[in-house]
Amino acid sequence: MGSARIAGVGLTRFGSHPERTGRELFARAAAEAMEDAGVPRSDVETLNYGNYMGSIAENQGHQAPLMAEAAGVSCPATRYEEACASAGVAVREAVRAVRAGDVDVAIAGGMERMSHLETDAVTAGLATAADDLLEVKAGMTFPGAYALMARSYFETYGGTRRDLAHIASKNHENAVPNEYAQYRNRVSVDRALESPTVASPLHLFDACPITDGASAVVFVSERYADSEDVDAPVAVTGSGQGTDRMVLADREFLARTPAATRAAESAYGEAGIGPEDVDVAEVHDCFTIAEVLAIESLGFAPNGEGIAAAREGLTTADGDLPVNLSGGLKAKGHPVGATGGSQIVEVTRLLRGDHPNAEHVPDADVGVAHNAGGSVASAVVHVLEVVA
Amino acid sequence: MGSARIAGVGLTRFGSHPERTGRELFARAAAEAMEDAGVPRSDVETLNYGNYMGSIAENQGHQAPLMAEAAGVSCPATRYEEACASAGVAVREAVRAVRAGDVDVAIAGGMERMSHLETDAVTAGLATAADDLLEVKAGMTFPGAYALMARSYFETYGGTRRDLAHIASKNHENAVPNEYAQYRNRVSVDRALESPTVASPLHLFDACPITDGASAVVFVSERYADSEDVDAPVAVTGSGQGTDRMVLADREFLARTPAATRAAESAYGEAGIGPEDVDVAEVHDCFTIAEVLAIESLGFAPNGEGIAAAREGLTTADGDLPVNLSGGLKAKGHPVGATGGSQIVEVTRLLRGDHPNAEHVPDADVGVAHNAGGSVASAVVHVLEVVA
């Protein structure tokens, strides 16, 4: 099976854009990606678009045709929704379509706009990604869900709030040079520890912010890259997706995320690599504990040992395996339906060497992106490699 | 490229199921499809699920993992949203995954639940499939949109409300023997004409009802069908998708649906057939005028001549090309996110000969399904053929 080459990537600045419509945000990301790719819009054969809660936040469903128009393309366009992994599945299907030879050029990405809503409305909107009958009606929201996962982890393996604060501090440090990031301020471990409680043991600085933004990636087939002389040095060589029980109470063990483990195994298998081959990773740190569970599911640390990774320096910018050099969801921000695409953008730039933090991984040629939905009832993992 | 064989199909009865949850509805359709297929659940490798407005109607997004659980499968599961064509794109991606060799067994379908809401809330929910900024805020809802399309058609080509009433009457007649249909009562042309105005020139009996329901289709690869000795006599041999400008005011001509024309051309091209080869069709008659536009876009009648098809008998049960032998959206019902899957179910049964209306098409071996989103800003067309 051929690989899907990445010809261009684009983002909006992540943050608060209450004055801009969703289609303006996606148009900007798509335009940046098309400009980066240098591919004519008339060659684009499919648009795969991720969005989570536009029908709630903007009274707008059926966004795919609108976004095709915003991107200036007239091909088939489809919206994917998988909670916070919406753009991850959109990317995955674009990769599959290119590899299968169905299309030569695809755009995939996503958009979310939430900052114009009251915080309570955002929390309620995001909570629709949990089970309404069995969790939400009982009062569950995502800070609570991840707090339960953190408690289970602490009780099973040990670990402290200070360990989690190291993750927050690391990701804020990484965001400082990232012009697309929502928060480019440093946060010390002590400041993170002192932030107010959200859902014990998680505090404010354990959580990602409310973010507007968009992402776009242009994929091309090997055939197209060769025949059109497109500069596309990075390829997606592996893609995996996993699903788990939605309801936390139905899971065997709250301190693991098997959907992500399955997605990683599939992605590694396709790429013919293992976790030991990975040089850099973007993972779905919607809460600091989620980064711990992610790096364990990806095989970067044994179960129970991911908690110490940031503190011990494994995953810091100068560590053996830098994680979330973008700043992660924690500091770069988390426009839900765009996040899976933005991770691909960040890893691509790190591998191409045109990322502001690329200096930390000068020899990187294998990267991983890990995107999760809800309390990881769904997960998508992609392997990216330098191939040209 | 191999074809995707249809091993099993399932539906709930369409209608009003306020006492049943969405997951119960989908579980039932999926169970019927799996039973029909005779394939073990452990062999299912992907679940592609269509839903339009669950986050509004049931406060439930991220439905794909829930539906995987309801269907008793533990594979990757993805939700597709393309307004009323949500299940159409879910089916299309399942077909592509099977044909590409990515998976051997896939379930695709969808679910919608709306009847527990007030009619105003349903109308407002459905209106999120139009452009919120440029149409909905100006008062546009879908009866109004299709009324404009009907007016444009009448002014350009001629045609009368009586012609449209023939379509309503035909589809109600077809629904009488269909045990899955919401309305199994006959409606005369005169009664349809006398129904109250909804948006002139469209009256109540020009419109589809508010419906709950679910659909599921089990696809298998040729390799799997052969090696596992699965009875799967019908295959999807062509799949096409088209996109158009969302806003009616931006279109050149309101009396045509070019997204459907493009989808049909792609599907026919893949299947290596033309409209003259089609024996039976299910088309997206959310309003009677939509059936006219569909059969013209599918090439069954020249532009301007589709309006007379039902009156002249071309598309009636005993005509040369029966359309909507299921009863169509008009009488069988339109559970938005399930409809594209249910059309595949109906065409499959007509081609296999186990449909209550199969006697009208005893020699049929080519069928078409046409699923549209919103005012046909998106459209999906599938060609099904008897191959074994």
Automatic annotation (TrEMBL), chains A, B:
Keywords of the record: Isoprene biosynthesis
Keyword rRNA-binding found: no
Keyword Transcription attributed: no
A biological-process GO annotation: isoprenoid biosynthetic process
Pfam families: Thiolase_C_1, Thiolase_N
InterPro entries assigned to the protein according to its UniProt record, in alphabetical order: Thiolase (IPR002155), Thiolase-like (IPR016039), Thiolase_C_2 (IPR055140), Thiolase_N (IPR020616)
Domain Thiolase C-terminal as annotated: residue spans: 240-385
Superkingdom of origin organism: Archaea
Residue span(s) of domain Thiolase N-terminal: 14-222
Protein name (database record): Beta-ketoacyl synthase N-terminal-like domain-containing protein
